[in-house]
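CORE FACILITY INTAKE
Project code: CF-77B
Contact: R.S. (postdoc)
Sample description: multi-component assembly, four entities in total
Requested service: structural model of the whole complex
Turnaround: standard
Below are the sequence entries exactly as provided by the requester. Do not edit them.
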Amino acid sequence: MTKRLRADAQRNRDDLVAAARTLFGERGIDVPLDEVAHRAGVGIGTLYRRFPDREALIEAVAIDTVGRLTEIAETELSAGPDAWTALVGFLRRAVELRIGVLLSVLTPQLPQAAHGRPALRAARQELIGLLDRMVAGAQAHGVLRTDVGSGDIAVLLSMLVRELPGLPDAVADAVPVRFLELVLDGLRTRPGSALASGPVTAAELVGDGEP
Amino acid sequence: MTKRLRADAQRNRDDLVAAARTLFGERGIDVPLDEVAHRAGVGIGTLYRRFPDREALIEAVAIDTVGRLTEIAETELSAGPDAWTALVGFLRRAVELRIGVLLSVLTPQLPQAAHGRPALRAARQELIGLLDRMVAGAQAHGVLRTDVGSGDIAVLLSMLVRELPGLPDAVADAVPVRFLELVLDGLRTRPGSALASGPVTAAELVGDGEP
DNA sequence: TCCAAGTGGATGAATTTCCTCCGGTTAGTA
DNA sequence: TACTAACCGGAGGAAATTCATCCACTTGGA
């Protein structure tokens, strides 16, 4: 196993991965590494010492993210009364934490080398298994439509979590959870479902009634 | 009015705006202008002659886009039997053409100056009016949930149209329409609704069963 | 036919991003 | 408490990207 890090070094490493996860998710995989370092509250030097190149950082983020999602999925599956509840819980928590799967599952731009790195492959496979279980289970119970698959869930999560630039902060913050509920329920009127927040009007989006 | 352009020049101008609209939508407002020119099949020089700076191009795209959406909305509203049908038609056509509103309606990064340019303000106001009409109408008929507003529609459209990098082409192409239908219907099983394409599995997303 | 209008892309400037290097700091052990 | 191996931060030059001009050549249309 790799040498054990000094306490502060480990802390910084974790902060870096966390910062990278957020920034990668929000702004894409090619945010300047300087920004990642800054957001983590460490110097650029520190980042480069820990992760020799961008690819290494991406891989670390991927593994970390898949791990978190797997944990969430496991928790929900074992705690929830049924697969659908687990699926919904999984999505809610992932969205709340702003964790998209896509990056971690297929890590688009990840050079083939890293893409297939065994550690990542294994972790990914495990997550996919859990996703499939939730989807299949919910479909078996007849509550999840059968024309969607686990891949749809992955894409959905990524779409929801991705930041839309230019929105007023209040709106931007609410969007992911808001739209998750919308996708779950659909736009059509349906008894018993109501969004937590009120309607967003276009005028409010523009933010200038009469400036 | 501004001087009339020579035929070929006008054609190039249109191509530029079209290329910019697509690229802005897919990759954000700060794609390199070189790429816009290339995609439009013209030289960079041509772009710069027609649009002195990025802001001018953005404004042109915004006006053009709002115009197109307005036209679609008008068509659907007058042709459709009711507001809900019009709204759905509007969304379907906009998604099909990959036209997001957000950019054009609130043009996030647009410097205040241009953001408030009268031509754009007026066009935007008109579009917002139409959106509100569709939303309010559909709600009055009881078919659209009342906890969403025209702003939600704008955000939705932008989310759907935005490209998710790294997806297999086939999936990427299908995503916008696929998810529009999902949002309209919801993930829950519902009689009589079926997606045009089959489920997308996570494995298929990753693209490597056993490579 | 003729030329004002238009074209493209080579090119240097400006900006952004990368990533090394090293003087100073600190965790952790004895 | 003292010592040192490990770690830190960020200045700054190299490299890459993007901007935006300029001009020799082409073309639409009167």
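Facility notes:
- The CA atoms of residues 19 and 138 of chain B lie 34 Å apart.
- Residues 6-9, 32-34, 44-45, 48, 52-54 of chain B lie near DNA strand D (CB under 10 Å from a C1').
Invoice: internal transfer
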